[in-house]
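Per reviewer request, we include the raw input and output of the structure prediction for the construct analysed in the revised manuscript.
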Amino acid sequence: MIPMVVAERVHKSFGHTEVLRGIDLTVETGQVVCLIGPSGSGKSTLLRCVNNLETVDTGHIWVDGQLMGYRVGGSRLHRLKERPARQQRRCIGMVFQHFNLFPHMTALENVAMAPAVVAGEDRDVAVARADALLKRVGLAAKRDAYPRQMSGGQQQRVAIARALALQPKLLLFDEPTSALDPELVGEVLTVMVDLAAEGITMLVVTHELSFARDVADNLVFMDGGTIVESGPPARLIASPAHERTRSFLSRIRAEHTGIS
């Protein structure tokens, strides 16, 4: 089976700042892989490169066997223009730290918009799927509510339903709970646990070590634009091999309770 994500020797700079320094990463189909690390370590940039929101400087990323951001012409690679790049992104759903819902649209309209507008799907079909997805994330009663009428946790669950609306092969989560009040984190993580149980491939940037330990197949610690170490979450959390990882995990434990 072809891996869902393969990154090979990926480098990415912004100006004179090198944010990714030779990333190699494989995510098998059906896996949940969590990325942890300090701010500025390159985690979010890596997700944006996987989703082709940022084009890598050197190296390559494949999603489900498709080279992201480029087309092959003869013996050379050519960067994709925006329209074919958008087509590539249709197989990938992304959930951001800040919910990015359209404030003038209801929950139902936010979820149905992409299939109806981006994919040209029949509106009745798009609305029926949106209804089903809102029920899936426990928000059937909020279908006609606007973002301002929902809690942060509810808005993020709408964002997850929206990411599922185009029936993606891969879901990317960029710190989906970091903007939430602590009492709302659990309702979002519960949805993510359910998605993982359904076998959806997920690449998750998170500081929620309990989620990573209990749900992820692989845990990756990044620092300074590199992958310092990776492995089974329980092993890496309990006995990391590198001092940089130990220091980071100690700080996270000091900030969050419930990790022994």
